[in-house]
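User: Could you check the structure of this?
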Amino acid sequence: MRGPAMMRMRWTVAAAAAAAFLVLAVASAQPPPSPPAATTNNSRLEKAYVALQALKRAITDDPKKLTQNWCGPDVCSYFGVYCAPAPDDPCQRTVAAVDLNHGDLAGTLPEELGLLSDLAVFHLNSNRFCGSLPESLRSLHLLHEIDVSNNQLSGPFPSQLLCLPNVQYVDIRFNNFCGEVPAAIFDKKIDALFINNNHFEFTLPDSFTNSTASVIVLANLPRVGGCLPSSIGDMAGTLNELILLNSGISSCIPPEIGNLDKLTVLDLSFNSIAGTLPDTIGNMRALEQLDVAHNQLAGEIPESICELPHLKNFTYSYNFFCGEPHRCLEVPRIDDRQNCIAGRPDQRSGEECISFLHQPKVHCDAHGCIAPPSPPPPPPPVYAPPPPVY
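Assistant: Sure, the predicted structure tokens are below.
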């Protein structure tokens, strides 16, 4: 998930999410000269001073000296701190954003961060913060973006995020969070959810398809499990990218997935997905990247998929497909290795393909899950012959 495709997805989503940050940055790039802090600091900035000084004390290593100028009460001049007029009182300045991305900072996150009550953007990705997210974050009711990815944070899923009414962008990937992911996170009206590369263990809840996010990444969570529900088509109004690779999902691909006509990226690779590729995927006219590699899929590749007008990358290697239309070979980039396609290079051995064909046929239940094989019919009753008559 750290490759070019992931980076492309990351910036596709972040472009919209970073708008608030850019506005704040421009607004604070040339702050007007301030009179002495003692006469201008309002109560908001005084609380921010307490919070930021607590954060500085909790930082145990600052190799890039990002917080070197965090001295004195003029918090709006601190590196990585951005001030703007308070939303409820434009005459007062307040701390609206903290951005210390890629700082290689080590330390913990103190409870005093909850004093930043007007914070809209909180970016701490690519550092070495450990411990858990402070409980006081639940009081940041204006928080719009939180990105603490690529750190060493741990503990259960930060339920504080469920209490934030305005959060739109949640990125906690590449940490050590563990345990259940609350189903309520999929009921929140957020735009992007990145929780991949942690140690969560849960089953896709029924509320999964309630999500209004445009991007959902649950990759490299091999203990997720569950099925792709037929209600996945209900996400058509907003969903743009869905990344579920290596998530332990044992499922069929429901035909209703074809309703996702805004989806550009679909990655279901490295799971236990079986059955066939539904030809309804040919209705997903915006699709650019489709990856179903390393599953148990079989049958023919539907030609309608390879006719999608924007499809640039179609990967279906390491399955048991037995045929592909010639049109698929015209997709800019395909990978059909290790299947059972006659005449194509680097395919499975005949023994592997025959053995797979002799396995019981996969059936999917009404929920999109792989149904257990039907029990064999009972043997016919055996009647003992009547005794001979003398």
